Write a sequence for this structure.
């Protein structure tokens, strides 16, 4: 991370800090720490005071931090991170009010408070606000993260065979991601047949049958940025009902994508996708229609009926409606989409492997 | 999870709740929720009021919860979990003081507080206290989790070749774990050569050489319980210095294991392992000597110099001293050990594959 980039990010954060009336901010969320320091490890915090950034870490990560964090001071602590951070804050000039991210645990917050002379208060998601608008480099990272995932899926599909378990095929998909020197975005969901009706299914020992259905919800990471993708396949000849349901989900997703544009109400976008499914007299999904994706797999904004906000240019969101019928089927289609002033760009569009073509892909496995 | 088991666990928890002066307890930590409900999903909370348990979840998990949670009431919410939990608490009889786990975020705590009529306070790790003593079924799960890991490692070693990247071999280890219908315990650490000096290394595209060193820190899960294991191998002929360092780490680990027994001070046990390394004039590791392992990969007790507590019968802990010399080498040996009144039992002992034999294993790869 070059120093100009850090400066730009800090400038935005400092502005929000000033507005919140805090003199220093303690970042405890790993992705926020990473965004402002370049550090990719865990269990480390960052103290922001104007343009000065201090990374508080421990001996497990010191060597890594020295390689990754070129623009900040690194402090190795061994007395507990909250206590150590409190003591560092005490040595900083003119810090009267300290903000601590409100996603920190109560426990950490209280320990920090105990060891800090300044007034400590829980702070709203300031770093997340800066992170929400993705610049062109970040957009490219998400797009590359999607490309890696598609490439891995293509390779993994070649290794699909009747009788393979969900669990083993999950391992194969993940190995293909590893071969591309990447890592998974989140716990891969691979569900055969009716198992797809559990939106957060954990792959098990269900075996693939001759006539079957596959749902895969997965992603890869590139430079810390996530892709989050879902596709469904039919093995052999799909039933007419499955095909109808699939086409409905596809239309719902396309309708939502078509309506993505800066200024659109998140709750309106959510309704647009749901309406397509309701109009087909099929059961409407219980989860949201999508969520922001970036350094975190789920981040602002959330596309749901209770969202009060609007889409903004620079948001990258998933669009992922579904149909779930327990014991029967589960279908979801998901892409990652960049919001622009005039519409959107599908960052996860795939020209090479055909995973973005309309219509249900059926696999013939011999 | 049978109802007798849940009853026994609740009895212990209720006792601690009474001592803390709380009428109901909100569990927000996934592993605590799982321990008292049997639910293995995420983003769900449990309300404990005497022997009554309520799982608060959302539509993504309702079907799964219905299958997994036979002893508790399931509530599907769609208004935000903290708000929903607050409203459920308001309907319970004689709840004047509610405890919320202090590992919950500030944000969640405040939202819950806002929507609850009762007094809400942050509660110390009560559920973790009940979880600390592992019963025989839990011990067996950890032991099985270790067996799965060893079996996978054995298979993965057969697929090792000169030129393979850390990342690809990591994928192979993880695929072998998947083939056994299990999942990884945590992000697998596989480091070739000097990369082992970073205790929390992330596998990259470093290729295996003809004369090289491998560090693998990994584990598998069985029924939610983790194994956490580290081994080092030499590829080709190791240097005399590496061999000396390896033998020192091995002696440190064995010396610590020999001294594990209920009643031993955690800080003393920590010193015992460190002393072996210091006496050999080699650099002493910065991390702790071990940690509890169970439903979480890191749980109580922590074996470190600052620990105030003692080992107790029923604790399952890792013993994992190491030597780290940046740019030169990194060695760690780790097993999972059950503490008994008279000593310990190494749950991760492996008779079949020879990963527990003394002395450095050297691999001849053709």
């Amino acid at each position: 991370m070059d120093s100009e980039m850090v400066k730009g990010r800090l400038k935005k954060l400092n502005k929000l800090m000033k507005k919140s009336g805090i003199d220093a901010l303690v970042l405890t969320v790993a992705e926020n720490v990473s965004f402002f320091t370049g550090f990719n490890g865990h269990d480390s915090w960052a103290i922001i005071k104007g343009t000065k950034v201090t990374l508080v870490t421990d001996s497990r990560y010191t060597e890594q931090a020295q390689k990754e964090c070129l623009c900040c001071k690194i402090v190795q602590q061994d007395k507990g991170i909250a206590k150590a951070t409190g003591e560092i804050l005490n040595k900083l000039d003119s810090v009267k009010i300290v903000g601590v991210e409100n996603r920190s645990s109560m426990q950490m917050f209280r320990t920090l408070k105990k060891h800090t002379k300044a007034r400590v208060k829980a702070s709203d998601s300031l770093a997340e606000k800066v992170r929400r608008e993705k610049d062109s480099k970040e957009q490219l990272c998400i797009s590359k993260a999607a490309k890696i995932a598609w490439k891995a899926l293509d390779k993994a599909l070649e290794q699909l065979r009747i009788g393979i378990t969900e669990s083993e095929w999950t391992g194969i998909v993940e190995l293909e991601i590893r071969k591309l020197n990447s890592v998974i975005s989140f716990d891969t969901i691979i569900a055969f047949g009716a198992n797809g009706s559990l939106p957060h299914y954990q792959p098990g020992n269900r075996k693939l049958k001759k006539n079957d259905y596959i749902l895969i919800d997965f992603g890869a990471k590139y430079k810390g940025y996530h892709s989050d993708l879902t596709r469904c396949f039919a093995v052999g000849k799909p039933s007419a009902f499955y095909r109808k349901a699939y086409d409905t989900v596809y239309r719902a997703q396309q309708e939502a994508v078509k309506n993505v544009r800066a200024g659109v109400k998140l709750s309106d976008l959510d309704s647009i996708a749901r309406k397509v499914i309701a109009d087909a007299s099929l059961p409407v999904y219980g989860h949201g229609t999508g969520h922001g994706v970036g350094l975190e797999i789920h981040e602002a904004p959330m596309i749901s009926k209770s969202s009060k906000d609007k889409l903004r240019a620079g948001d990258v969101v998933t669009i992922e409606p579904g149909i779930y019928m327990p014991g029967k089927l589960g279908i979801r289609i998901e892409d990652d989409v960049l919001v622009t002033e005039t519409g959107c760009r599908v960052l996860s569009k795939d020209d090479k492997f055909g995973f973005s073509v309309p219509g249900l892909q059926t696999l013939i496995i011999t």
Notes: Chain B touches chain A through 54 residues (CB under 8 Å). The first strand of chain B starts at residue 24 and ends at 27.
